[in-house]
């Protein structure tokens, strides 16, 4: 990944440019909260917004983009199909409903939110059809382990462009990272800041002091240097601005390795192999 500022991007396996830094809106309330968060993000230079049907804030996301001073084509918008909507026909319908709530003609990226057994292959076929129709510029998955990807690839016409995974210093999953890289699947982080638990990691405190940066800034910079797209979530202007201040320093290879070594295989969110929703 060539890191050259907040407006930088990676090329997905179909050539689409995806900004490597964005705003996640998980748990942001629809209405003023999510609209203000996106307004602050756009003002700070963010050009990538990640939502999902289950977040119940797509309407607010669409309104914020419509009311912003940025052209629609200059903002990368991601949404996801929820588990109860998976299956071919129901995924097509869910996508159209997301577009309607967002008040958009297309999405930049549409993801399968979780690998629902016996459904995700049909769901993927629906995403492939939406992609063929030009209704979405890129398609991918979220929370897919290596065996899910291997299974999907036995029938897929399109290799997923993205795999969005829980990724942070306590959950690196280097083998999965390597698998995705080898297959041209862009890795993307959710919960990169461990829902605040990174503040308790002593090694990160030391690195932050050495670089005169905050702990989140250290971790988000590490994300990018690992080649991982990252979408930290916040609704506070000062935090949104601070999270983006990661382009004026570089971690050494030794420092990246030190953060890698913090891996404990510990999840903050659900296990993709054992979830019940």
UniProtKB/TrEMBL annotation:
- In this record, what's one Pfam family? Aldo_ket_red
Q: Which CDD domains does its entry note?
A: AKR_AKR5G1-3
NADP-dependent oxidoreductase domain boundaries: 30-263
Q: InterPro entries in the record, alphabetically?
A: AKR, AKR5G, Aldo/ket_reductase_CS, NAD(P)_OxRdtase_dom_sf, NADP_OxRdtase_dom
Signal peptide coordinates: none
Against PROSITE patterns, the record matches this protein to:
ALDOKETO_REDUCTASE_1 (PS00798), ALDOKETO_REDUCTASE_2 (PS00062), ALDOKETO_REDUCTASE_3 (PS00063)
Q: Which UniProt keywords apply?
A: NADP, Oxidoreductase
Question: Oxidoreductase as a keyword?
Answer: yes
Record family assignment: Belongs to the aldo/keto reductase family.
Q: Which PANTHER family match?
A: 2,5-DIKETO-D-GLUCONIC ACID REDUCTASE (PTHR43827), NADP-DEPENDENT OXIDOREDUCTASE DOMAIN-CONTAINING PROTEIN (PTHR43827:SF3)
What is the protein name stated in its UniProt record? Aldo/keto reductase
């Amino acid at each position: 990944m060539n890191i050259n500022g907040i407006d930088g991007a990676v090329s997905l396996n179909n050539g689409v440019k995806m900004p490597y830094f964005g705003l996640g809106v998980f748990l942001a309330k629809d209405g003023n909260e999510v609209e203000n968060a996106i307004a602050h993000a756009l003002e700070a230079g963010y050009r990538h917004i990640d939502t999902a049907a289950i977040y119940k804030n797509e309407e607010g996301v669409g309104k914020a983009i419509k009311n912003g001073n940025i052209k629609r084509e200059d903002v990368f918008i991601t949404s996801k199909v929820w588990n109860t909507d998976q299956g071919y026909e129901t995924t097509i319908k869910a996508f159209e409903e997301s577009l309607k709530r967002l008040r958009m003609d297309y999405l930049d990226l549409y993801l399968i939110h979780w690998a629902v057994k016996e459904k995700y292959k049909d769901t993927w076929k629906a995403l492939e059809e939406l992609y063929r129709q030009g209704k979405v510029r890129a398609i991918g998955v979220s929370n897919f382990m290596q065996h899910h990807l291997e299974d999907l690839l036995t029938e897929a016409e399109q290799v997923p462009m993205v795999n969005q995974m829980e990724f942070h210093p306590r959950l690196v999953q280097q083998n999965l990272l390597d698998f995705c890289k080898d297959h041209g699947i862009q890795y993307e982080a959710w919960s990169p800041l461990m829902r605040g638990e990174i503040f308790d990691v002593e090694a990160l405190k030391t690195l932050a002091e050495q670089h005169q940066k905050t702990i989140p800034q250290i971790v988000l910079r590490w994300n990018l240097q690992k080649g991982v797209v990252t979408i930290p979530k916040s609704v506070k202007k000062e935090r949104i601005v601070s999270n983006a201040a990661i382009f004026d320093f570089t971690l050494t290879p030794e420092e990246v390795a030190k953060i890698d070594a913090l891996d404990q295989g510990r999840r903050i969110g659900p296990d993709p192999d054992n979830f019940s929703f």
